[in-house]
Design a protein that fits this description.
Layout: H1 2-17, H2 22-45, H3 49-61, H4 71-86, H5 94-110, H6 113-119, H7 123-129, H8 137-216, H9 222-249, H10 269-280, E1 284-289, H11 297-317, E2 323-329, E3 333-340, H12 355-365, E4 369-374, E5 380-387
Parallel strand pairs: 1-2
Antiparallel strand pairs: 2-3, 3-5, 4-5
Helix pairs in contact: 2-3, 2-5, 3-4, 4-5, 5-6, 5-8, 7-8, 8-9, 10-11, 11-12
Length: 394
């Protein structure tokens, strides 16, 4: 509690110190104090009224300029008035001492460091000259001024240097962050180009070879020609989707923007199941329960990809097996259930496969979980429960 209280007071004091009216208020208060102090001294010393008025005007000249002048002009006028007050008249007020230190600090902080250092130098010779008795109040104030003036100027210069260093450091961090961002973008674009060049070539070759085999193989059954045509269509669809996904990484070109399309969702499940049915030649059903509603795009994309991967795994590991895809909408979740009537999971998982782990990662990315294993009565089962709104995990 004490640390918070002192921290709040320090912040409050800092705001007051840098306020636009602070010099006016400080100069006015110091001028009143200086005039009061000078009149009290002259009244005790028994000098003439004319001399007392002159000392009062000098007291005003040593304190009032910061209220109306810029830091450089205020420092020059206050220093000149203080030297004039000390040299011929041997007079200096406590308020004048404070005003002199303040203007030197302001000049070092906001003006020229060299000017602040030069204006702090005249007081040391005045103190060494002993114009006022050392035991008198003016002599003590002169020694204090000669000692503290360079410190005040140096403190202002140091604060200005610290502020400039912080500004330069912030600018350097911003430039470094921008450079790293540009480097990352360039690296993403390079990876996207290389991935496109390598994968697109092979997928295009698959599509061309499937189409060539369909057209040049004599006596091919209609079912075989249909399968080859489906292979070509699937390869071309995969090439289009890959280009769309890589276009997000390729931020160095502007021509790909018009070709980008929204990511697939649950509305595209019917087309996905039709493609799977045409590719495998077996039954594929979509069963929907509950009240359908538009979900978070991330949840819909995760659900689509999980169904897509499950259908791909069924065609690969259970060819010819029928597949049921069930969607169950509830108030807060979407339950997916993909089941085939194939032989079930293999005794050992296939080497190099990432399908199941990829489905689990997609489910976890939106705050859901996924389970796989043998289905009751035979076959393979994929079950997942996804929230209706994406809850991205870190």
């Amino acid at each position: 509690m004490d640390e918070h209280r002192w921290g709040g007071r320090a912040e409050w004091g800092r705001r007051i110190g840098v306020g636009p009216r602070t010099p006016v208020v400080a100069g006015t208060v110091l001028a009143l104090l200086a005039v009061t102090e000078s009149f009290a001294r002259t009244a005790d010393s028994g000098v003439t009224v004319r001399f007392g008025l002159l000392i009062g005007l000098l007291a005003l000249a040593t304190t009032l300029p910061p209220a109306f002048l810029s830091p450089a002009a205020a420092a020059a006028s206050v220093t000149a008035a203080t030297v004039l007050s000390l040299a011929p008249f041997h007079s200096l007020t406590v308020a004048g001492l404070c005003a002199q230190l303040i203007v030197l600090h302001r000049l070092g902080r906001a003006g020229s460091p060299r000017s602040a250092a030069l204006l702090a130098m005249p007081f040391l010779p005045l103190a060494l000259a002993g114009l006022a008795p050392a035991h008198s109040e003016t002599g003590v104030l002169t020694v204090l001024l000669a000692s503290l003036a360079p410190v005040a100027a140096w403190a202002g210069i140091a604060r200005r240097a610290r502020g400039e260093a912080l500004t330069h450091s912030a600018a350097h961090r911003a430039m470094t962050s921008t450079l790293l961002e540009h480097t990352a973008r360039s690296e993403r674009a390079r990876i996207a180009r290389e991935l496109h060049d390598v994968v697109a070539h092979h997928i295009s070759m698959i599509a061309v070879q499937a189409e060539t085999a369909r057209l040049t193989t004599p006596g091919m059954p209609a079912a075989g020609a249909q399968r080859l045509s489906s292979i070509g269509d699937t390869a071309r669809a995969a090439l289009t989707e890959m280009r769309r996904l890589l276009g997000v990484l390729r931020e160095d070109t502007g021509s790909d923007t018009a070709d980008r399309q929204p990511q697939p969702g649950l509305r595209q499940l019917v087309d996905l199941l039709d493609e799977a049915r045409d590719a495998s030649g077996t039954g594929t059903r979509l069963i929907v329960r509950g009240r359908q509603a538009a979900l978070d795009p991330g949840v819909e994309l995760a659900a689509y990809r999980i169904v897509q991967e499950a259908l791909t795994n069924a065609r690969r590991h259970a060819p010819g097996a029928a597949v049921d895809v069930e969607l169950h909408y509830t108030a807060g979740t979407l339950a997916l259930r993909i089941r085939d009537n194939g032989p079930g999971p293999p005794p050992a998982p296939p080497a190099g496969g990432h399908g199941l782990s990829g489905m689990r990662e997609r489910a976890a990315a939106v705050g859901g979980d996924l389970r796989t294993g043998p289905a009751p009565g035979g076959g393979f089962l994929v079950e997942t429960v996804l929230p209706t709104h994406a809850e991205t995990t870190g």
